[in-house]
Amino acid sequence: MVYGQQGLVSSSSYERFLLGRGVTNFLLMFIEKHFIFMFLLQACSYPQYRYLGLVTFLAALSASFSAVAASDDVFSPYLDFSVIHEDNLLRFHDAASALAVTGSEVMADTIKRTSAGLRINKIISQQTLIADLSMSRNRYSHFSQYDYAGKDASANWGWQLGSHVSGNLGGSYSEGQTPFQDFRAIEPNINRQRRENFDAAWQFHPSWRVRGGYSQYALAYDLAVLQYNDRKLATTEFGLDFVQPTNSTVGVQLRHIRGDYPNNLIVSIFSVDNNYSQNEFKGKVDWRVSETASIQFLGGLVRKNYDALTKRNFSGTNSRLVANWSASAKLNLNVNAWNEVGSSSDLSANFSTNRGVSSDLGWELASKVRVNASLRGERRDYTGVAAVIGAQALERKDNYTAASIGLSYMPIRHLQLSASLANEALSSNFERNGYRDNKLQFNGRYDLGLD
Description:
CATH topology of the largest domain: Porin
Protein name: EPS biosynthesis protein
Shape: globular
Keywords: Membrane, Transmembrane, Transmembrane helix
Order of helices and strands: EEHHEHEEEEEEEEEEEEEEEEEEE
InterPro entries: BBP2_2, EpsL_proteobac
Transmembrane segments: 26-44, 51-70
């Protein structure tokens, strides 16, 4: 037994206290030296990222004050280790395709991922400050050219003025390997994503609420041949809602998106400018069916106009339905259905019509055991105009399916162990585009937050 200022505690509790404090201090110094200051300086040096720098600074400042006050629930450092095996990492159609591209029929790989992070959560009166910072090391057993160090950071200030005006000011940054489902590039392809957002809502009448928001998103690829997909999106949104006593709402929403692609797509002798403006007018419904069930709907008209090659302009309808049901405190179900027009990176069509449905189930079998399962299916019709002058639209059609099931177990308060199995498949009328992948993942996460 060990005696201390807080009274009599067990040696194991005291050791865990020292371990948590030591690792917390180490993580803070490490992230401060290698991540936060670089992140803040870079964010604050550009006007378009000033909100992100401000929010991260507020979260860090709040965490510092909380550390002085020894408020352990503000900080939550964590360590995470994963082993992931995929039998078709690069999404080849078959072994012959792998041999033709890589010189080997090997399609499978095992990835080991180690990460350390820090979550910050602080409530000050009506204000909520949340931040999550992490760094990861990813190592591939066979395709070692994809080894990379990942970085992720997010921060949000949930602000409120009085009882009728509230909103969010936040941002995020991520750096990591581009998913192979998006681009099947043989060379390493790190992408960097930034997002800043601000929104506000004012309930000026017991039954009426007006809202608005602005966000910026930037995506950049390391791989030169894919930099034509680098983009910056600026989104402005306004809405008006009728609010019922049950907190159900019915309203309308206007959205404008400006998309800028700094690098033109070069195909043979053609240079394609993909800059565009998009306008949306949608109806929005949030129906609180009961205390345990809700339904959301967002749908309406979408029109996209390109700066160049205006024959690619298109208009259509987007709609999405979301249903949530908590059958009990231990069982939750979420179902999504959508019919949306989306942009396409396929040169034979500038957009695709995507129709799909997905479901997610969470079931707490026992106090320390939980099962999660998901299903997803989507039909993608690439029926737009070809991006290259004189090219013929190929009317490609894809069917995408994905399923997963996972089990998590918490043997002790701060440790979570989990395992999951997933299957992903794509079939297409262009047969060589199809693939199938199976993934097995084991994960261990230790939360160093103290009691």
